[in-house]
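User: Hi! I'm working on a homework problem where we have to compare a predicted structure to a textbook description. Could you give me the structure for the chain below?
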Amino acid sequence: MYHCPVVRALDAESRTKGEAVPDPTRVRVRATDPVSEAGVASQLRVQHDLEILSSDSPARPDVVVLVADRVDERTAAGIRATRDSGGPRVVLVVGSVDGVGVLAAVEAGVAAIVRRCEATRDRLSTAIRAAATGDGHLPPDLLGRLLQQVGDAQRKAAAPTGLTFGGLTQRELTVLRLIAEGYSTSEIATRMAYSERTIKNSIHDLVSRFHLRNRTQAVAFAVRQGLI
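Assistant: Happy to help. Predicted structure tokens:
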């Protein structure tokens, strides 16, 4: 694997200080056309903490970046196939997306969504790092305004089999509302006057209790239930 001089310098500095050098996040890019795939991969290769795997690499990725024009059934199926059986987390780079598309992607198991027109190197890298750590990443308007609009139209829809939001604590509801408004875990902790660990544990408990894949999916279902 190629390491640029900056990476070697950082590794050498860490070894000098006796610090452990964290393994890079392994990323595989998938797109419907080779130009998009090569372009996104090229953007990410300069990030020293990301290892971009080739399409024929046998290594298991931590995150898959899926590039699509829109969220249709083919895109949703690709997300589900990647996430099935505990597969890598998925970051979706999409040309256009509406409220229905956001819900479809979230319910399929996507961890982060980045609009193609906003997919700068920094934003895409931020989304990948968030997905790799389980935090997830969506533009605030997709979590808030668009999810709320779709939720208004779908609150009377039948809940997924076996899923109920009865018994949520006020703290959990507040955490969900703040996630929907685009706040990060650290920002939520500050606003609620709790430690960041407490907020992370609250999110983890909520996701585990209702058998959800990530906190973004928890927000989507909460919106559909009319809780936020």
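For your comparison, note the following. Residues 1-10, 155-165 have pLDDT under 50 and may be disordered. The chain has ten helices and five strands. Good luck with the assignment!
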